[in-house]
Amino acid sequence: MSQKSFMQQLREFLYGMIGYEFEEHAVQIRSTMESLFMAITFGDMLGLPIIPPYYGLRLLPFVVPSVATWKRRVLREREFSDSHEFDLHGI
């Protein structure tokens, strides 16, 4: 084996030990914030009118690609243990 492959393996090992959980947490936070933003601006699609539709219509061209996935994520059936509050976080 070459030195580069050993360094790559070491880097991946350390990333798995240190950085992976931080990255997963950041992805969960981003998903939550995106869902909250979409619910506030386009909640009237789901029957949740929060702000006037004028502002949502101004933003609609920018979020059209993610509307279908957002609706599927928000309206899917969930289990009790799906929430990230019940994760063990390193235990």
Give a short synopsis of this structure.
The chain is mainly α. The chain contains 2 helices and no strands.
Give descriptors for this structure.
single chain; 91 residues; mainly alpha
What features would you describe in this structure?
It is a single chain. The chain has 91 residues and is mainly alpha-helical. The protein has one domain. It has 2 helices and no strands. α1 crosses α2. The longest helix is centred in the first third of the chain and has 40 residues. The radius of gyration is 19 Å and the shape is elongated. 2% of the residues are buried. The mean pLDDT is 79.
Distance between the termini: 35 Å
Q: What is the C-alpha radius of gyration, as a whole number of Å?
A: 19 Å
Largest sheet: none
Strands, total number: 0
Q: How many structural domains can be distinguished in the coordinates?
A: 1
User: Which structural class fits the helix and strand makeup?
Assistant: mainly alpha
Strand content: under 5%
- The level of helicity is 55-70%
Assign an overall shape.
elongated
Which H/E pattern describes the elements?
Answer: HH
Helical region count? 2
Summed over residues and divided by their number, the pLDDT gives a mean of 79
Unreliable spans: none
Question: What's the arrangement of secondary structure elements?
Answer:
Blueprint: H1 3-42, H2 53-75
Helix pairs in contact: 1-2
